[in-house]
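If I may wish for something, please walk me through the protein I am sending here so I can picture the backbone:
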Amino acid sequence: MSGFTPDEKLRLQQLRELRRRWLKDQELSPREPVLPPENPGFVERFWQRFLRPQTPWRLQVYKAYGNVYCIVGILLIPSWIVHYYIKYHVATEPYGIMELKPRLFPGDRIVETGEVLPPLKEEHEEHHH
């Protein structure tokens, strides 16, 4: 037996018709998609107003950004790099780096003040811990 039975042919025809209808339903009409009305929140409304061209706030922010870029990018960072290079690669004496102070013992003279350190007091105790 070759070919489809009449019931199978009817079923295939119905499936083709259903597929065609489904594909037709997938096409959007000019009225679609139907979206709810926009109700932007506080932050979104702020940015919509703020980002309009030629608003005073936007111009002020642009000017402030330009000034901050000039100060930081052209003045502070290069001067910091130069300071670092001079401090750690050129300077012969590390004025900014603290070295250990010399030890002082009783009887030594302090150079800055000329004061002589007094001897340590001897404590006489009967018991030691």
In short: The mean pLDDT is 85. The helical segments are 6-26, 42-50, 56-90. The chain has three helices and no strands. Residues 28 and 34 are 11 Å apart (CA to CA).
